[in-house]
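pasting for ref
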Amino acid sequence: MNATISQPMITESISGQMLDYTHIDEFKTSVEEIALLMSRTPVNGGHQLIHNPYTLAHHALWVQRYILMNTGNPYTAMQAMLYRAHEVYSGSYPSPVRHLSYLREQISFLESQVQSIVYESLGIEKPAEGVRDLLDKTTLVAQAMEAKRFSPSRSYSHILTEIPADADAIEWDHNTSYQVFCDFMQTFEILAAAVATWERDQ
């Protein structure tokens, strides 16, 4: 074999764009691409006792409902929908892997770069520190609920000691990949329209 092997720093996105991880700031994405990729990416690496995988898109829809219920702010709900969108480009790492001391800084840096591109591409501001804290906590609630529903042990104590009572009030979706893609797109459009009205009324 005479082929020259180089470092694979470039990947082709589903839209046909070349994503160069050494110049990631040049990449642009769209809500359609994000929705499609999130609807195909299972949470927790697919370790779920269900036939149809529960995906990042399902997760995003649940999180935005919880945020909207607790804040009434459609803009924050939009930010919440996209909070884990970077994973379709940077990879979806289990939390224990993300927190390994020799990987944590590199993974965090890459995720932050990609997430900035996601928000910038869609004209949405990155969450401020207080909002990030809220989204981080809500992500943990969602992950605990997912473990309770889909893991073999049904245990969530490794994520949270207790799930907030209001989490059970949030509707769960477990549609097919195509249907959750459609639901994601429709919800994003509804939130965008609500943001315009909400900002006008402030």
